[in-house]
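hey so u asked for the seq, here:
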Amino acid sequence: MRSRPDDLYSRQLTLAEIASEEHRKLVGGLWHEIGALQFEFLIQHGLLRGHKLLDIGCGALRCGIPIIQYLDAGNYYGLDINASLIEAGRYELAKAGLTAKSPRLMVSDRFEMDRFGASFDFAIAQSLFSHLDKHRIAQCLAAARRVLRPESKLFCTFFLAPGSGHTEPIQHQPGGVITFSDRDPFHYSVGEMEGFAHDACFSAKFIGDWAHPRNLQMLQLSTL
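ran it, structure tokens below
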């Protein structure tokens, strides 16, 4: 990766860097591959054009661009902590000719999803929980629970640990990412992730491998 994980979202790209598409590297590269992977996954799990989708940690719209192109106008909502990545997302929208689709984008460092004034059928948090400690995950899930409709789905990815409280570093293949229990990038067991979900009043289903090139695992949360 381009910088240490803990530096990732403190770095603000310049307009010149955005114009040279530096943001595609900042969010981890594999721009088209991972964007298409997320889009195809959501379609396979029931996303329809008329659904409203919330992209938590949307970055520069790597996943957002194909989803916005698919959804009816006004049905994509993206939130990220990094203002320059949101600006880069607007660049990507203009480049793709999708500005008229009227996606809603917001900068927030407190998961203020209710500020959108909308409720959602689907949400995705891809490569987000791998950068959050357990307290921030709890904050994110509590906020998401308040804006998701009954019977909606939240898909989230995480690096898998073999058991709860696993304190040794883990190298994940493919990709070679090394994760930790106490610093970014984090790993969690299925049981730990299920516990976070249940505390926020979600049911949890472990999907696991979904062909992510860096071996992030997938968890489906459903509103109770």
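Helices lie at 15-19, 23-26, 31-44, 64-70, 83-96, 134-147, 190-199. The chain has one domain: 5-158+196-223.
lmk if thats what u needed
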